[in-house]
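Worked example 3 (structure in, sequence out).
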């Protein structure tokens, strides 16, 4: 019996999924274990990811824009999409980021807010993974507060001219198309920007200690001229990009549990094989208390994720509920990763085991898609009726 089954059985988790969801989960788990896991430590150490090859494989499996309908997308349930994120992130948060940014951010923006022409032009290639997208919201001085953005788009005849800088953009340097949010006379609007547009550049951000198996970039827009049709017609104001964030945050609610599960499985296996003083590390009560407490949080996180998945599939999931899941599951995942690291002792700091890699990755996951503090304030606003962001 594997460790994952032990946890699943403890909470009878599979009884909460239907056969199709289990089949999708198992397919993604197999793919991630066989195709990505053997290389991931090397990619992380090198700080280099074969994004194009991976995107094609992920697209071939139907994981990109997985729960969107039409235009080459798989059209699965949101719960299935969450399970796929979990299995991908069990190998590495960086690969889940690729899936999130492509499907939940760039594709969702076009799918939800785009014109029919924009959807036809971009979505089939993005679903197949032959066209790579990125999502430019954050700026150097405006991360948690994107409403303050300085990037702007001005009308020049029928055209738009964009100027500004975006920061920390996943897949920026490898993208074929960027969804860029900019201030206009009419409020914040979204633009579909081909990355070969004159004036667009995307220098890569290096020397990261987290999400090393993921491309992170700056986007620089200097007089980027776009036709009128480049604007997303249905996104008006900050609710446009925030609507996309709900989608990606939902994937993280599940995804972070994958990283935590991988840490816990690794720690349990290590503890059973490691002898300290005169017996197995797993046979000490302190180790078992750690394992039991981590299993509880991991199981509770799954129950929360599955519940939110059902709410999303029913069309009733609210943004503050997504915040609840993101805050809890990422916070618990990083605590589990750190606790597992203690069980591995010095071995826990090497890339021979996945634990320190997950722990470092989860530092980014804690920050992106709304920091823990932003989600605490979102929950606080929902419960008190008082917005305390400012
Ligand atoms: P606020 O006044 O609250 O809202 C402005 C308008 O937006 C609406 N709204 C939402 N709509 C949909 N979903 C949500 N979650 C929404 N939250 C708010 C709101 O109703 C309002 O609409 P309207 O029609 O009245 O104009 O805005 P605020 O300026 O006070 O900001 C609120 C705050 C702080 C919660 C928001 O700015 C926020 O979420 N900040 C965090 C930014 C963030 O998460 N950035 C992530 C960038 S992308 C990324 O990190 C990708 S990582 C890669 C990966 O995913 O793997
Ligand atoms: P800040 O907003 O400066 O926050 C700094 C600290 O202040 C945090 O602890 C924060 O919680 C706290 N704080 C902020 N506001 C308040 C407040 N009102 N009250 C109390 N405390 C507060 N962005 C994109 O647009 N697209 C991407 O693809 C993308 N990918 C990313 C990939 C990686 C690896 C990383 C690390 C980031 C990525 N981001 C992306 C950016 C990410 O969304 C931002 O980093 C995040 O929103 C936080 O913004 P910031 O880093 O500017 O921190």
């Amino acid at each position: 019996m594997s460790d994952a089954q032990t946890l699943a059985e403890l909470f009878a988790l599979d009884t909460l999924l239907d056969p199709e969801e289990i089949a999708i989960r198992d397919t993604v788990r197999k793919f991630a274990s066989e195709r990505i896991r053997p290389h991931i430590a090397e990619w992380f150490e090198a700080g280099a990811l074969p994004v194009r090859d991976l995107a094609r494989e992920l697209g071939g499996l139907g994981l990109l824009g997985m729960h969107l309908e039409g235009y080459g997308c798989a059209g699965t349930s949101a719960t299935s999409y969450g399970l796929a994120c979990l299995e991908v992130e069990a190998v590495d948060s960086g690969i889940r980021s690729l899936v999130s940014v492509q499907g939940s951010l760039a594709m969702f923006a076009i799918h939800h807010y785009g014109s029919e022409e924009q959807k036809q032009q971009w979505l089939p290639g993005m679903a197949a993974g032959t066209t790579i997208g990125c999502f430019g919201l954050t700026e150097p001085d405006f991360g948690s507060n994107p409403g303050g953005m300085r990037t702007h788009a001005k009308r020049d005849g029928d055209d738009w001219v964009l100027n500004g800088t975006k920061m920390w953009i996943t897949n920026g340097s490898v993208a074929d198309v960027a969804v860029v949010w900019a201030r206009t006379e009419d409020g914040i609007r979204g633009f579909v920007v081909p990355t070969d547009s004159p004036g667009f550049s995307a220098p890569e951000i290096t020397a990261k200690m987290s999400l090393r198996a993921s491309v992170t970039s700056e986007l620089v827009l200097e007089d980027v001229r776009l036709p009128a049709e480049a604007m997303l017609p249905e996104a008006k104001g900050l609710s446009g990009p925030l609507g996309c964030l709900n989608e990606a945050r939902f994937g993280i609610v599940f995804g972070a549990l994958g990283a935590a599960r991988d840490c816990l499985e690794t720690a349990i296996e290590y503890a059973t094989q490691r002898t300290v003083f005169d017996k197995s590390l797993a046979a000490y009560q302190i180790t078992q208390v750690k394992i039991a407490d981590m299993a509880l949080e991991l199981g509770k996180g799954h129950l929360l994720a599955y519940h939110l998945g059902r709410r999303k599939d029913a069309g009733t999931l609210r943004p503050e509920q997504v915040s609840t899941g993101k805050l809890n599951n990422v916070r618990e995942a990083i605590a589990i990763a750190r606790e597992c690291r203690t069980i591995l002792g010095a071995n826990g700091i090497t890339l021979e085991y996945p634990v320190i890699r997950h722990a470092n990755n989860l530092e980014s996951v804690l920050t992106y898609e709304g920091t823990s503090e932003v989600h605490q304030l979102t929950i606080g606003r929902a419960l008190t009726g008082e917005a305390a962001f400012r």
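Notes: Residues 41 and 200 are 32 Å apart (CA to CA). The two ends are 51 Å apart (CA to CA).
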